[in-house]
Specification:
- A hairpin with a 2-residue loop joins strand 12 and strand 13.
- This protein is an alpha+beta fold.
- The strands form 3 sheets. Strands 11-10-9-12-13 form a 5-stranded antiparallel sheet. A 4-stranded parallel sheet has the order 2-1-3-4.
- It has 3 domains: about 100 residues, Rossmann fold, CATH 3.40.50.20; about 60 residues, Dna Ligase, domain 1 (2-Layer Sandwich), CATH 3.30.1490; about 90 residues, D-amino Acid Aminotransferase, Chain A, domain 1 (2-Layer Sandwich), CATH 3.30.470.20.
- It is about 30% helix and about 25% strand.
- It starts with a strand and ends with a helix.
- It is globular and about 60 Å long.
Length: about 280
């Protein structure tokens, strides 16, 4: 059996994940999948033919160390998926600015602001909304993400030394939910809708988000396909998070590092993932 490593974090307690559903399909194709913590310094990356970044859901707390470990993997004989250059680009949410420049509609974003009462009023006026989302440029699982209708001085300590961005709160997140479309090696696999729990705005399951499998309509599918096409290359996995706006759908996030892939929401998905992984490895 050929060995592939699923890169994870030390502790996944409290998280919902289903990467194990791909283990059987991978085994059918001759691959032994093993889960390893990215923080384990004793791992010999040369022991694997491939390392797939999966549930590394604490990387945002130490991004430089994370990139250093990925650099070690990239320098080994193992193939890193997704590639290190893609991780570096996708790590900071400023990639959204580049996606917009390439022609992808994104949620309106204010970059590089200073967190102050005066700035907050300017953001409200500039975006012409009553509520804002403030979140770090490097973040995951909605950590340090806030929905605000007024300036909160307690957050000055949070954002004093942490680059952040400001976006309008999108009401459709609550009324309709956020859509995620999944692509393996550039091929569309499946789609889900994620809605927040009552009195929340975060769609992640660890925050009570409600997940439903959906069949994307033509407009949604076109938006997902267009976003994936603007990456410029086919990747083992890509998740496109979209939210409805007045003109159709806007890109909320392009998840290329450690997205939950929701294999359990589509019986075909783990098999397509395994097939496309095997195809990429055999094309080496």
């Amino acid at each position: 059996m050929r060995r592939v490593c699923f890169l994870s974090t030390d502790d996944l307690e409290g998280y919902t994940f289903d990467d194990d559903l791909a283990v059987g399909p991978l085994a059918d194709l001759g691959w032994q999948a093993e889960t390893v913590s990215w923080r384990d310094p004793a791992v010999d990356w040369n022991a694997f033919e491939a390392v797939v970044i999966r549930t590394t859901w604490d990387y945002q707390r130490d991004p430089e160390l994370f990139l250093s470990v990925l650099g070690d993997i990239d320098s080994s004989s193992a193939r890193l998926e997704n590639p290190l250059r893609i991780v570096r680009w996708n790590l900071n949410k400023r990639y959204l600015k580049e996606m917009e420049e390439r022609g992808c509609p994104i949620v309106p974003t204010i970059w590089g602001p200073e967190y102050s009462a005066e700035s907050f009023k300017q953001w409200i006026d500039l975006l012409a909304v009553n509520e804002l989302i403030v979140k770090p440029e490097v973040s995951a699982t909605a950590e340090n993400t806030f929905r605000l209708s007024s300036f909160d001085p307690a957050l000055q300590a949070v954002f004093e030394k942490r680059p952040f961005l400001v976006q309008p709160f999108m009401p459709s997140i609550v009324t309709e939910g956020e859509y995620s479309l999944f692509y393996f090696n550039g091929k569309f696999s499946h789609a889900i809708n994620k809605r927040p729990a009552d009195r929340d705005f975060r769609v992640q399951e660890e925050h009570g988000g409600i997940i439903t499998a959906v069949e994307p309509n033509q407009t949604l599918r076109r938006a997902g396909d267009a976003a994936v096409g603007l990456i410029g290359e086919e990747l083992l996995y890509a998740r496109v998070d979209l939210v409805r706006d007045r003109d159709g759908f806007a890109l909320m996030e392009l998840e290329l590092i450690e997205p939950a892939l929701y294999f359990r929401m589509d019986t075909r998905a783990p098999y397509l993932f395994a097939e496309e992984f095997d195809r990429r490895m055999n094309e080496l």
